[in-house]
Amino acid sequence: MHALTRVKRFQDVADIGYCASKKMFFYGFKLHIQITDQSLPMGYVVTAASYHDRIVAEEVMAQLPHPYTLGDKGYVSRPLQKKLHHEYGIAFWTPFCKNQQVSYSKEWEQWMRRKRKIVETTFSVLTDLFRLTAIRANSVDGFETALDGILLAYTLVSLELVEQ
C-alpha cells in the first residue's frame, strides 16, 4: 500500500516535498519565514511542501519589506533579486552556489555565515524546543492557530531574553 493512500489530514492542501540537505522526501507543508537580526519572526507564508522557495519569496518579503534581506540558497535567482529591488527597494542577498561564477571577499563570506547562523539557530530552536514540526492539528484553522501560538511564544521568550 502506498504511504499517501493512508494520509487523512490535509489531503487537499499538503503534498510531498524534497529536503535536499537531508536527502529525503516529506509530506506536509513548508514554512517560509522572515526574521530580524535578533531572530524575531516578522512575516511568514505556509505552502504545500512541493512549492519552490522562489515562488513565495516575494510574498513573504512584501509583508514587511526591509531594505536588506538575506535568503538561503533555495532563493537564489537573479531575476527575483532585480524584481525585489525594483518594486520594493529590497537588496536581496543569498549565499552563492558553488557553480556560480562570482566571488565575494572573505569579510563578506564571514558576515554572511554569521547572519546564516542566526537563521539556522532560529529554525533549530523552533523545531527542537517549540516542536514546530510536530503540530498535530486536524484542520487548517487548527494548524494556523498552533503555528501562530508557537511563533508568539518564541517571540515572547526571545524578547524576554533580550531584556535580561
Commentary on this structure:
By secondary structure, this protein is an alpha+beta fold. The protein has a single domain, classed as Nucleotidyltransferase, domain 5. It is built from 4 helices and 5 strands, in the order βββαβαβαα. The chain has helices at residues 53-63, 78-88, 106-128, 140-163; strands at 15-19, 24-35, 41-48, 68-70, 91-93. A 3-stranded antiparallel β-sheet has the order 1-2-3, covered by helices on one side. A two-stranded parallel sheet has the order 4-5. A hairpin with a 4-residue loop joins strand 1 (15-19) and strand 2 (24-35). The longest helix is centred in the C-terminal third of the chain and has 24 residues, at 140-163. The termini are far apart. GO terms for molecular function: DNA binding; transposase activity. InterPro entries: Transposase_11 (IPR002559). This is DDE family transposase. It holds the Pfam family DDE_Tnp_1. It comes from Paranoxybacillus vitaminiphilus.
End-to-end C-alpha gap: 54 Å
Radius of gyration: 17 Å
Global geometry:
globular
Number of individual domains: 1
For the record, the CATH class is Alpha Beta
* DSSP summary: helix tally: 4
| Beta content | 15-25%
Helix content: 40-55%
pLDDT averaged residue by residue = 86
* Corresponding CATH architecture: 2-Layer Sandwich
Structural class: alpha+beta
Number of strands: 5
Quickly describe the structure.
This protein has 164 residues and is of the alpha+beta class. The protein has four helices and five strands, in the order βββαβαβαα.
